[in-house]
Design brief:
This protein has 349 residues and is of the alpha/beta class. Helices cover 34% and strands 14% of the residues. An eight-stranded mixed β-sheet has the order 1-9-7-8-5-2-3-4, with helices on one face. Residues 102-107, 162, 165-166, 192-194, 249, 332, 346 line the site of 5-phenyluridine 5'-(trihydrogen diphosphate).
Length: 349
């Protein structure tokens, strides 16, 4: 039998040569891909500059608060997300966000602080349109806005009852979603105007449909939630149901989803109106009913809707959107003009 040794020695250089050529071709191909990606402005898989810690499945980002609901909706807290990653993702999709706010009658005074602080903290670097619904178009000041941002004033009627001022927001958001928002923006964020932004509120809040934990009820049990408890109302929720108590002053989602939510709430209110019943916390009660059966796909922690009348709990690392203290009677009722003492009827719980 002849030994294999000489033959093997004979083909080794060939084999080495082939490997070398393959490696050379592969690196050439990779350089071409990288170069053409950069030229097309594609950041996806080609952007190597973004450095961040790898997620560690053995190290939860927060252990002091719930960060996920039983239906797998994230609850957004400081420390649970990376803004750089999220901003890059939303930029890639060229997302446009609409921020709706109502400033009826005396509440027009809140607009200035609201917009000025939103310019500093709300969706910085994204495309934003502010929609101000008001009956006092002449009282809305002119603003200098950053690039990619605009402000649209929508004139709306002023209802005499303050309950209607608050509740009719659902109808007006619904109508404008169909007529205007669907063509102009991807996501809607619908908030109270008697507020100021005091820290970042960015794309981490965006999702199909989202709600916000009310700052007064995050630690309450479901029986303590101030849901509508009269079975005659369409907003009725029995004491053995309910996940969270959501605030009426901060919700949003895609235009389609916000349309569905506001349409439900408005229709439910109209059914109740026929029966001459009005849910205890007005639009907030109907919102809570909607979210019981149509679970939000993301939930914002009370960082996103805080009121300094409450003591700051240890787990609250940031106050991003905070209620502006208001003199209830002076702002809501013109007691001095009416000459009689009238309680506002809406007190802090
Ligand atoms: C007036 C009197 C009592 C309650 C609400 C109003 C009122 C509310 C008003 O006169 N004008 C007005 O534009 N609003 C809108 O409804 C504002 O956008 C306001 O932020 C929202 C909800 O009313 P709030 O902020 O007084 O309700 P709370 O629960 O935050 O105190
Ligand atoms: Mn408010």
């Amino acid at each position: 039998m002849q030994s294999l040794k000489p033959e093997r020695a004979h083909w080794r250089p060939w084999w080495l040569m082939k490997c070398f050529v393959i490696v050379l071709l592969l690196s050439l191909w990779w350089c071409t891909v990288k170069y053409s990606c950069r030229n097309r402005g594609v950041t996806f898989s080609c952007k190597t500059q973004m450095l961040y810690d790898t997620p560690n499945i053995m190290r939860p980002l927060r252990i002091d608060v719930l960060t996920m609901t039983p239906w797998f909706a994230p609850i957004v807290w400081n420390g649970t997300y990376n803004s750089d990653i999220l901003n890059a993702q939303f930029h890639q999709k060229d997302v446009h966000v609409g921020l709706t706010v109502f400033a009826i009658r005396k509440y027009a005074v809140f607009v200035q602080t609201f917009i000025e602080t939103a310019e500093k903290f709300f969706m910085v670097g994204q495309k934003v349109t502010y929609y101000i619904f008001t009956d006092r178009i002449n009282d809305i000041p002119a603003f200098t806005l950053s690039d990619g941002r605009k402000l649209i004033v929508l004139e709306v009627p002023s209802y005499t009852r303050w309950q209607d001022v608050s509740m009719r927001r659902m109808e007006m958001i619904r109508d404008q979603s169909r007529q205007r928002f669907i063509r102009e923006v991807d996501y809607l964020v619908c908030v109270d105007v008697d507020m100021r932004f005091s820290d970042e509120v960015g794309v981490e809040i965006l999702s199909g449909i989202f709600g916000t934990l009310h700052p007064g009820f995050y630690s309450a049990s479901r029986e303590q939630f101030t849901y509508e408890r009269r079975p005659q109302s369409t907003a009725y929720i029995p004491t053995d149901e309910g996940d969270f108590y959501y605030a009426g002053g901060f919700f949003g989602g895609t235009v389609e989803e916000v349309y569905r939510l506001t349409n439900f709430c408005h229709n439910a209110m109209m059914v109740d109106k026929e029966k001459q019943i009005e849910a205890i916390w007005h639009d907030e009660s109907y919102l809570n009913k909607y979210f019981l059966y149509e679970k939000p796909t993301k939930i914002l922690s009370p960082e996103y809707l805080w009121d300094n009348n409450f003591q700051t709990p240890g787990f609250l690392k940031r106050k991003r959107f905070v209620a502006v203290p208001k003199n209830h009677n002076a702002i809501r009722y013109r007691r001095e003009l009416m000459g009689v003492s009238v309680a506002s009827g809406k007190f802090h719980r």
